[in-house]
Design a protein that fits this description.
Layout lengths: L3 E2 L3 E2 L20 E2 L21 H7 L8 H6 L2 E3 L21 H6 L6 E3 L4 E2 L2 H7 L4 E4 L10 E2 L19 E4 L2 E3 L6 E3 L6 E2 L4 E2 L6 H4 L2 E5 L13 E7 L2 H6 L1 H12 L10 E7 L3 E5 L8 E5 L10 H4 L1 E2 L4 H14 L10 H12 L4 E7 L34 H11 L2 E7 L7 H4 L1 H6 L12 E4 L14 E5 L9 E11 L5 E13 L2 H6 L3 H18 L2 H21 L10 E3 L5 H9 L12 H13 L2 H8 L2 E4 L9 E3 L2 E3 L17 E5 L3 E6 L5 H8 L20 H14 L7 E6 L5 H5 L13 H12 L2
Parallel strand pairs: 2-23, 6-25, 8-14, 15-16, 15-20, 20-21, 31-32
Antiparallel strand pairs: 1-3, 4-26, 5-7, 7-23, 9-10, 10-11, 12-13, 14-25, 16-17, 16-19, 17-18, 22-24, 24-25, 27-30, 28-29, 30-31
């Protein structure tokens, strides 16, 4: 039996008429499974036959059709078994669509809106022939340095498909514009004739909406279910014995006290607190009280909610009472003997409290919920953590949290969950359903308050867009040279402003298979496949998901070989654009979310799954295939010069222990964590001038930061690390790892090209792919 992944969202590419799309079956066999043998292979390099010329390869693949020199390079055949150093010296930018300069200037940034194929196949048959997934990845709330914000009485949209006007529409004259998605001709409203930027009249094509692919509209009342509500924060705190023992309550209360003035919002911002153990406790913080009042509800089967206005209070008016409560909370439960946790009833109470306004619930939990609705029992067998067979209990044990998540979404309530336990907490039940079912978005420095995707009236023309989506081509694209995609998000800011953020992406439509391969975005493809593999792990099994990932590589390279069948050299051949595909898939198979045969706690596996499902592309890629640099010998050669700072640019190294030396210091950037591995014989000048210790022996084993020292080495190293972090929404944890420390295991597990007891090395994996292709 063959493993097939069906994960399809039907989306039409631009057609010549509004009703020309013909239906296709709701399935897409993008990843077909097969066996993934655990057999270890040990082989040496051997001499291979010469390569065909690029012109021969082009002819076999249907012709280059006048592609640029850069695209020609992406089609260069690479023998993966022979060319071992395929990693570029620095992270390669995403492939640039082959558009005119005018369109390229106004196109959406790939950091915001990215397609797995930057050349869209003209037909579904051509897409099937390439055996590559067509999908979109969206990072809608990425921090932007410039964002046009438009205030207008009329938001101009197509009358037929409801597309927002954008840079890729065409103006027939000053009074008419043609939609770039359905080609309907629409009238230009009188208000749109005025350009607020130039303060001129009669130039609608110069309006900000038509000059920028990412814009934000101030929404009118037509886009509101109810008037914008204030920012409302409700903190749900576990105060059981295990919570008190963890010490988190002291840290939480002090941190919130330090940042109380910085909570996003305005003068209407409200705040409230609920604590829970075997009972649920509310706190009256109404203005005028001399001190906070605690209200205990012991009937957790039907939690009674006291007066709403006294529990969610205006922060500005009741700030002193809030501070008093935060100062008192850590000492209130010091001697508690309560070991039970009524998380479910506490969440039900939070839902009732927040439903009138919506808002953000922040939950801190330190153990399994053991009482009332949503109670859970341990499902993890520690003896099976290293199993090479299927991993059980990746899905929720109860639908209570899933239903609650959907209810919260309907009332515009967001839920953040912080699990603070070293013991099994069943994140699969508590967290994964929330992450998958609620309309949440990835974290940014500026959190949107309430969000949902815009859903057009005619679902046959366009569908609402989630963060990652798979697509099929519903119409023949022979009559168009461009395909456009648009995502619109309606949200409320923390200051109560209703806004619509719109992103529009334009890509060329191609008719040649060579052009499809040339436009493959391998990082986007890998992230989409990771997302699909997580879904497959839960809906079917982990082994099916792993098989499907392996066969995604097999199918793609087989298609490439088959369509150049008259020029097949021996070896494992890939176009240069896809040369990193096997490496990225191997790295995915070694992630905690998908690995087998290595001891992995169930909660850690599920958390890794959540990250792969929710993080932006760049963060996922650093997690899957981290960046490794040698930094003890950095020089100013080829350095960047930014704002009077010199930023060294050490080359990326392959993720293998072969690249490490005991004389060096190596920085491993995994996105959410950074490791600085220091060899036993590392230069003492580097240790002294960068780490602040005299020699290797004096380095502590728990060092978590680099000191600010007034040395050239220190300034150079800190400048490089700061440059790596400047575009991130949060700073990673940092660990200095000694060569002889027990913590070095955490470092070496990220060297994905090396063989482990339960997983292939990169070269062995290539041989396995070649073997599968020959079947």
């Amino acid at each position: 039996m063959r493993t097939v992944l069906n994960h399809t969202c039907l989306l039409p590419v631009s057609s010549t008429t509004t009703d020309s799309a013909s239906p296709v079956p709701n399935s897409y066999e993008s990843l077909e499974g097969g066996g993934y043998s655990g057999t270890s292979l040990r082989c040496s390099l051997r001499h291979l036959n010469p390569f065909p010329s690029l012109s021969e390869l082009s002819s076999a693949l249907g012709g280059l059709g006048g592609v640029s020199e850069l695209e020609a390079e992406t089609l260069r055949p690479v023998n993966l078994l022979q060319e071992r150093n395929i990693l570029p010296p620095k992270r390669a930018p995403p492939p640039e669509p082959n558009l005119s300069n005018d369109l390229r200037k106004v196109n959406c940034s790939p950091d915001t809106f990215r397609c797995t194929l930057t050349n869209i196949p003209q037909t579904q048959a051509l897409l099937n022939k390439a055996r590559l997934p067509l999908g979109l990845l969206l990072h809608p709330f990425r921090d932007l340095t410039q964002l046009p914000v438009i205030t207008s009485n009329t938001i101009v949209r197509c009358r037929s498909c409801r597309t927002y006007i954008n840079p890729f529409v065409s103006f027939l004259d000053q009074r008419r514009w043609k939609c770039n998605l359905c080609y309907r001709v629409n009238d230009v409203p009188d208000e749109f004739m005025y350009n607020p930027v130039t303060r001129s009249y009669g130039e609608p094509h110069k309006r900000p909406e038509v000059q920028n692919s990412t814009v934000e509209f101030i929404a009118s009342s037509d886009y509101m279910l109810r008037p914008p509500q204030p920012a409302v924060y409700l903190f749900l705190l576990d105060v059981s014995h295990s919570a008190v023992e963890s010490g988190y309550l002291n840290v939480f209360c002090q941190s919130l006290l330090d940042n109380l003035e910085k909570l996003p919002g305005d003068t209407r911002t409200h705040i409230g607190f609920v604590t829970f153990d075997s009972t649920v406790h509310f706190y009256n913080l109404q203005e005028g009280l001399s001190q906070p009042q605690m209200l205990v509800v012991s009937d957790i089967d039907d939690v009674f909610i006291p007066t709403h206005d006294s529990l969610l209070v205006n922060l500005k008016e009741s700030k002193e009472l809030v501070k008093d409560l935060l100062n008192a909370l850590p000492g209130m439960f010091t001697h508690t003997r309560e070991t039970q946790s009524a998380l479910g009833p506490a969440l039900q109470a939070a839902y009732k409290l927040m439903s009138p306004t919506g808002g953000r619930v922040t939950v801190f939990q330190t153990q399994l919920p053991t009482l009332g609705a949503g109670l859970l029992q341990s499902r993890e067998d520690p003896n099976l953590r290293s199993s090479t067979k299927n991993v059980l209990h990746l899905g929720p044990a109860t639908d209570f949290y899933k239903k609650l998540a959907l209810d919260c979404s309907g009332q515009q309530i967001g839920v953040d969950l912080f699990l603070l336990s070293s013991q099994y907490s069943d994140l699969a039940s508590l967290g994964f359903t929330l992450a998958r079912e609620s309309k949440s978005v990835e974290r940014t420095k500026k959190l949107p308050w309430k969000v949902w995707m815009d859903k057009p009236v005619d679902q046959s023309e366009k569908v609402s867009l989630e963060r990652d989506m798979k697509m099929q081509i519903l119409v023949n694209g022979t009559d168009t040279s461009l395909a456009c995609f648009q995502a619109a998000l309606l949200y409320t800011s923390s200051k109560g402003k209703r806004r619509i953020r719109v992103h529009t992406l334009c890509l060329p439509v191609v008719s040649q298979l060579s052009e499809v391969f040339a436009g493959a975005d391998i990082q986007a493809i890998s992230c989409l496949l990771a997302n699909m593999a997580i879904d497959r792990s839960i809906s079917s099994s982990l082994s099916d998901a792993r098989d499907a990932l392996v066969n995604a590589v097999v199918d793609c390279l087989t298609a490439y070989r088959a369509n150049g069948s008259n020029i097949q050299p021996s070896g494992l051949i890939a176009p240069a654009a896809l040369r990193l595909f096997p490496l990225y898939v191997l790295a995915l198979l070694k992630q905690k979310a998908l690995r087998t045969g290595t001891s992995t706690r169930l909660d850690e596996r599920v958390f890794s799954m959540c990250e792969l499902k929710s993080q932006p592309l760049q963060q996922i890629m650093r997690m899957v295939h981290p960046d490794l640099y040698r930094i003890d010998n950095m020089t100013e050669q080829a350095a960047l010069h930014l704002n009077d700072s010199v930023i060294p640019q050490p080359p990326l190294l392959q993720l293998t222990a072969e690249k490490l030396t005991r004389e060096g210091a190596f920085l491993l950037d995994c996105g959410s964590v950074m490791y600085l591995w220091v060899g036993k014989c590392c230069n003492e000048t580097f240790i002294r001038d960068v780490l602040g210790f005299q020699n290797y022996a004096s380095l502590p084993s728990n060092m978590t930061e680099i000191p600010e020292l007034q040395t050239t080495y220190s300034e150079r190293t800190r400048a490089f690390i700061s440059w790596l972090l400047e575009s991130r929404t949060f700073h990673p944890a940092f660990h200095v790892v000694k060569d002889d420390a027990s913590t070095k295991t955490s470092f070496f597990q990220h060297l994905v090209e090396d063989r482990t007891e339960s997983a292939f090395s990169y070269y062995e994996f290539l041989l396995h792919i070649q073997q599968q292709m020959s079947k």
